[in-house]
Amino acid sequence: MGLDFAWYGDDFTGAAATMEALAFGGLPAMLFLETPTAAQLARFPGLRGVGVASTARTESPDWMRLNLPGAFRALAALRPRVIHYKVCSTLDSAPHIGSIGAALEIGLELFRNPWVPIVIAAPQMRRYQAFGHLFAGAGGAVYRLDLHPVMARHPVTPMDEADVALHLSRQTDVAIGCLTLEDYASGADAALARLLALGARAVTLDEMDPGSEVEAGRLIWQASEHELLFTIGSQGVEYAVLRHLVASGQHVLPPPPPGRGRAPAPVLVVSGSVSPITAAQIGWARGHGFTTFALDAAALCRGEDVVTPLRAVALAALNAGQDVLIHTAEGPEDPGVAALARALAETGRDPAAFNQQIGETLGRLLADLTRAAGLKRVVISGGDTSGHATRQMGIFALEALAPTIPGASLARAHAVGDFDGLEIALKGGQMGSEDYFGWIRDGGGARP
User: Fold this and answer.
1) CA 367 – CA 315 distance, rounded (Å)
2) What gap in Å lies between CA 27 and CA 40, rounded to an integer?
3) Which residue in 168, 342, 352, 414 is a FRET match for 447, CA 20 to 30 A apart?
């Protein structure tokens, strides 16, 4: 059986989440950190899904027009049934950075599908779309995206519009329609035909529950029957297709794999996220056995050597058997966030370029400490941080090992050099239970 999915992730944690959706759904999948070579692919026979992680979410439309066509063609050469441009389930994007609209235009130019399905929702992750509007869970509540306590205050792409098509219309002139829950009830195929007759080239798909997810998956799988299909969305694309395949008797879901157990050495976490969700996780970790250290981002911006002393105290703690967490901030109200803003203004440095420097600094620190302390399991928190950090470690592919919350599993790294076989978890800033870092420390695994 051939390749079903090839995906290109606009950030590393999201790309890894797609891999786990397929792998834990019974379709062997591998995530590569660059377009894989023939020799690398040959190491992993029997794959049904192949992904490539990128930092497109932090790039400009010009960067996308330069880089995405080649990446999409490379994925098409693998002859998958579906090519998926993977975006965040909270729609992180704007006209000037991480433009999903630019990716849509490129996909339409290359593949010329009659329509492009857009599936942002993923009910397994408490991401829902109803009548075109996106909702996301946070804590014990579900919020419309423009009222979400994290996404409405996102430091780079704050969400002020919950209507998915309207949000994307700020990024592209491509006509975008919506298939709603009501359309599913009255006949989705006829409703889709009407939208296409009215000129829609892309269509967002409502999802609220297993039934609507099955219908979205059916529409995608049906559209890919006779030609390669280009899609845009979260890992909800894969969840929906799997749900359809199971419901139609074409696939049987395997039981979830067990956890890995406690690591034989301390666990190291590095975090570049300013999300309040990550802040709560840092607080939990501090109260449950982790030793925490702050990386002074403002001082780093001013050119001070903050790494050497931080490395020394962190290595001493690891060598003493302590689990260690290094962070740049504890939520948006952390005084370090304001201090960094002042340092950026004083130095005139570009925030996006410095954000990359933070990620690369954390990556080098992670690599150095992992090697020096002989660590077997590490965590990177923050989608952008994960992309910059993993590139510092010579990792070329990731393989899902054990689930936690959807989208943040424990994985095995494939690398040339010291980090081959390292167990690593990549977590988006707004994802995970409060005890997530402890869950990974204990080896992950599904919970009742």
Assistant:
1) 12
2) 19
3) 414
Q: How many CB atoms lie within 10 A of CB 45?
A: 7
pTM: 0.90
Fold of 267-441: Molybdenum Cofactor Biosythetic Enzyme; Chain A (3.40.980)
Contact 99, 68 (CB under 8 A): no
Q: What is the DSSP string of 377-408?
A: EEEEESHHHHHHHHGGGTEEEEEEEE-SSTT-
Architecture of the 5-247 domain: 3-Layer(aba) Sandwich (3.40)
pLDDT tens, 101-127?
Answer: 999 999 999 998 999 999 999 999 999
Under 8 Å between Cβ of 125 and 433: no
* CB burial of residue 273 (10 Å; 0-12, 13-18, 19+): buried
Cβ-count burial 393-408 (b if 16+ within 10 Å, e if not):
bebbbbbbbbbbbbbb
Show the CA angle centred on residue 297, arms to residues 291 and 299, nearest 5°. 110
DSSP state of 256: P
Residue at 440: amino acid letter? I
Averaged pLDDT score across all residues of the chain: 94
Helical H segments across 174-209, by residue range: 181-186, 188-197
Residue 140: DSSP 8-state: T
Domain boundaries, the chain: 5-247, 267-441
What's the distance, CA 36 to chain centroid? 19
The pair of three-digit structure tokens given for residue 363, joined into one six-digit string: 């990556």
